[in-house]
Amino acid sequence: MERYNFKLVEEKWQRYWLDNKTFKSSKNKNKEKFYCLEMFPYPSGKIHMGHVRNYAIGDVLSRYKTLKGYNVLHPMGWDSFGMPAENAARQNNLNPKTWTEKNIEIMKTQLKLLGLSIDWDREISTCSPEYYKHQQKIFLDLYDKGLVYRKESYVNWDPIDKTVLANEQVIDGKGWRSGAVVERKKLNQWFFKISYFSEELLNDLNDLDNWPDKVKTMQKNWIGKSFGCEIDFKVEGSEKIKSIRCYTTRPDTLFGFSFLALSVDHPLSKLYEKDKDFIDFKEECSKTGTTEESIAQATKIGFKTELKAINPLDNNSKVPVYFANFVLMDYGFGAVFGCPAHDQRDFDFAKKYKLEIKTVVKPLDEKEDYQVGNEAYTGPGVIINSKFLNGLAVPDKSINEAIKILEEKNLGNKKTNFRLKDWGISRQRYWGCPIPIAYDENHNVVKIPEKDLPVMLPDKVDLNTNGNPLDSQKEWRHLNINGKKCTRETDTLDTFVDSSWYFLRFCSAKAQNEPFVIDDIDYWMPVDQYIGGVEHAILHLLYSRFFMRAISLDNKKTGLKEPFKGLFTQGMVCHETYRDENNNWVFPEDVTSEDGENFYLNENPSKKVTVGPSESMSKSKKNTIDPEKIIKIYGADAVRLFILSDSPPEKDIQWSDTGISASFRFLQKFWSLNEKILKNQKKFSLFDEDLEKFTNQIIQKFEKDLDRFSFNVVIASIHKIYTFYNKHINKKDWGTNFYKNYVNILKVINPVMPHFSNECLKKLDQKTDEIKWPAIDKRYLKEENFNIVIQINGKKRKVFSMSEAIDEETLIKNIKKDPQMKKYIDNKQIIKTIYVENKLINFIIN
RNA sequence: GCCCUCGUGGUGAAAUUGGUAGACACAAAGGACUUAAAAUCCUUGCCGCUUGCGGAGUGCCAGUUCGAGUCUGGCCGAGGGCACCA
């Protein structure tokens, strides 16, 4: 019997698909479309298991939908701008472009080994001018729409490398490369006005029915809508300043007001910029680390001014004004009123500076003379000690009433606030999309004319200079626009911009003169199923939602707002971590074990290896498995089968060597089943109803499980199929329907293991092009063997197997006759009987 | 601190609207076949007693229900997100 040679088979079919352009997609308005998209990879060098899992899921879905008769779009591209290229190029003295293009070639080859059903004719790469020229066009379009602006803002500045660092490049307050203490520096930066859509981005989450709730909640919190009131506080003690505006969500606690706190960046700080004590204080504030921990533990410090703020509801109450380190400038107005009794931060601050702590809310179960203890009380209750607000229920009534009164007295206004900040898109980097802007001699912004697009990245740059390499490109920087001397913007775009519209480009990947053709996106968009890692739950997905709205704004031709109709976030691939005696990480392939308990180095079995917990595969911990090596040993179908089995796709999965080899052996077993069937094709004679039932029911289950992404259950069904068919064939139950049903089985497993399925079908002389999902014969879906559970007082005592439906009366008669059941029922009074038709009967007795 | 999710055998898990808990696999043990090995197939969740049967059982404690892994409340534990957002 011929062994299954996955290598030959997989190569053969991959060649066939390529030569025949099997997965080429084109618009067909008579056919329902399905746009399946996985998050495109960054070409870092090689694919990793995370990619394998992501693309296996997407591929199964794409192939399934194709079988179901949809016109499927399943493209792939490269998120190819970004810092790793710049760093790698610097290290190896290469050009980022060369490095990136080489990686793309390698990874493309690896993806093809997986047998993905991708339309490679639509391949795009964001670092290619063919792509970014359109992005520059979109940038200018958004500029014209007023959604792009420039303002001064703070950045993390590395004083040694003279460059801006992203937040994740700042480690313990120091630059990741130079180790220099990072400074806050004000720079002119470009922004997208994502806040223009805050309300919409929040509300429209409600319509995204096919998104995970988790992601929607994360976005909701990120947008952070809060409802409150802006209040002007009159100020005494300075000629220059008469009032300070604050934002609060708790205007009802205004009678507990005991200080007013300002951010050190508040405009009022100008009054103190020559005050040495204030300069020292500001310095002290900036030292508070940037790490989450240090912020959480930071003590609250303040700088007392000579100013007094007046309580708008009680003009006799005058309280000190402080600058305080815990007030943020970019939320609200950079000024807050302090109510220590009912806000923990204010409480901590008041304790430190011995300010009054006046209780104005009491919990419902406390007496009128309630006083807050060692911490602020922020829960619900009733207003006290607050004159005309007393007795109001906290929070809803009290807040609404307080706002009403403030508005009536012209002291404040109802206000909604969002946490979502505008998106800073300037990066002082070389390997990114140039911003198509220049400045004239008076520093005015000048758009690069459309005819001069794309603004090409210069090929030859010195990456070893400090700061942005583009700054030193003298020739490139200077240009004339309409006869005026100008200099180019040297910042490039955040790479998140590249990935905010690539799903549109796939619809018109070859369009020369525009980013996309309206007719194409009308047909293909929105993406029906988007699949990727949960790490992009907020930024990438929110930015894409913003882009879709920004592009559609004032655009009469497309009104699309949501780019992704369905979203699926898959879990990570994990593996145990290994360390040698010197505590260095060791690759799993360099480790061996005979008993599964003690581990040693392959090269030196006397050296013990300690096993750490299983964690998400990462290069730094060396707990990675190279997909290419695994595919070469076990084949793509075995890898696909394994990576989809066992764990539900949204959860993390454990890589296991025994698991992958079991999948491999399973394919071998399935193959020999196929061989047996092939040899005995002529022997089918008897009709077998059980087979018909099994097959139709399992295909139905397949559909249901595929539709709800239960791939692990689908794989379980495949195992069941094998066991069932193998049993039948060993018993020589050659039903006339055996062959037909088996062929249908080969079709439904096709999305999961396409090479294997195609090869088996071919061997049985079946067509492999345009395979259709088999129609289910409804006659066999009806369960005709009824298992009726007999319960006594809700406890299972026996199961009756019936070949046909039975009525309650007969059933009870049978039960009473049953010798096993007799002992439970005889001489007992049946108080109640619960009967679920053909399923269950429950006797309640005493 | 706030928000969200999840707790089921040795392990990954299944159970779609409350109705036979543990499908399907991994590991381990035992068995069949074999001169032997590989491969393949079968059996085994736990505790009792003699095949068979009985008991407990889905993190813990209550509740609703004829019936709860599933619903409600409280507690404990794990993971994730946000983090001085006023």
- The gross shape turns out to be globular
Can you give the mean pLDDT?
Answer: 90
> Which stretches are low in confidence, meaning pLDDT under 50 for 5 or more residues running?
289-296
Kindly name the structural category.
alpha+beta
Query: How many strands, which pairing sense, and closed or not: the largest β-sheet?
Result: 7 strands, mixed
Strand content: 15-25%
Percent helix range: 25-40%
The tally of helices reads: 25
Ends: how far apart?
64 Å
Number of strands: 38
Key features of this structure:
6-stranded mixed β-sheet; 846 residues; alpha+beta; RNA-binding; 38 strands; single chain; 34% helix
Structural description of this entry:
With 846 residues, the chain is α+β, with helices and mostly antiparallel strands. Helices cover 34% and strands 22% of the residues. It is built from 25 helices and 38 strands. Strands 10, 11, 12, 13, 14, 15 and 19 form a 7-stranded mixed β-sheet that branches. Strand 24 (478-481) and strand 25 (484-488) form a beta hairpin. Helix 2 (49-67) packs across helix 18 (636-644), helix 18 (636-644) crosses helix 19 (657-679) and helix 20 runs antiparallel to helix 21 (711-730). It binds one RNA strand of 86 nucleotides through helix 7, strand 11, helix 9, strand 15 and helix 10.
